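Appendix B. Extra example for self-study. Work through it before the problem class; the solution is given directly after the inputs so you can check yourself.
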Amino acid sequence: MHDEPGDRSRSGRLLLLLLILAVVLALTGAGSLVFASGFGLRTPQRSGATIAPPADPVGGAVTVEALAPSAPVSLEIPAIEVHSSLLRLRLNPDGTVEVPPLDSPDAGWYENSPTPGERGPAVILGHVDSARTGPGVFFDLRAVLPGDGITVGRADGTSASFRVDRVAEYPKTAFPTAAVYGDIDHAGLRLITCGGAFDRSARSYEDNIVVYASAVSAGQAG
Amino acid sequence: MNFRQRARRFAGGLVVATALLIAVPGQALATSTPPAPAPPPTATPAPVPVKVAPVPAPRTSPPTQERAPATARGQISQIPSGAPDTGGGSTAGDTEMVLVALGMLGLTGAAGLGGALARRRPRDTAQG
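Solution. Structure tokens for the complete assembly:
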């Protein structure tokens, strides 16, 4: 019982079709790998990020008089072209700080921290990126350098200006709670996002980037 | 002889007992009050013990009482625990992992089909 030539050509065509399908799938997989290692999970590069102990504020910011409480509504970081509205963030039931929705283009202010301009460390958090939406509001936060200016607009119409003291990167497993959230003797600002390598199994970055800034002036918002 | 020995032992024991009676309370007194008897003459040596005395007072609860006013105004009222998760971690990779899995499946399939074709061709030609 030999196969007829027609059967053979039919099975050959089927095999060829399956082969083409397999090649298409393989190319799709290769493309997705390129995407994964490229834009989608890109980690910003910068030089100058250091892990250092808390330093004194730059430019004598301690002398600036603290403002009365007023919720922050906007954030400007000209050096990395950040112009963001600010959400309000709370504490999660597990005790961790809430973060903005992953797809949100805005940063958020942790409402149990002082309002920016008040005495104490005002805490603002933002995403570094998202697989769905690409770079987040704090994608370039690592590129901020000491001396860069930050302005926070407040609900009462005033604004608080800060100057970056330092930028630090910490492993999430050793996040320095006291240094970041601890009491300070002036109006300060903490900008927090993720950094370091992306752990695919944990679906999380391994580090946090923290920008420490101190108030330098306050006034009426433009 | 026996009487003498007994008398000597008794006398020795008496001496030892008397010595103990005197020495033990003496030592007790000595450990509890070594510096006290010395200073009575004037008030000059007094500062040394007086300086030691105030130590218990500040022990009450200074650190918390000093920090309380600082946190009461303006500082963070509820300190978050752990590190903030501000990366794309919660969704990153969902789509990609599916695509990568499909790609791997495709590669495996392509390899298998290629092998099958390679085996089939020689048989076909042999038959033809």
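Self-check: The longest strand of chain A covers residues 204-220. If your reasoning did not lead you there, revisit section 3.
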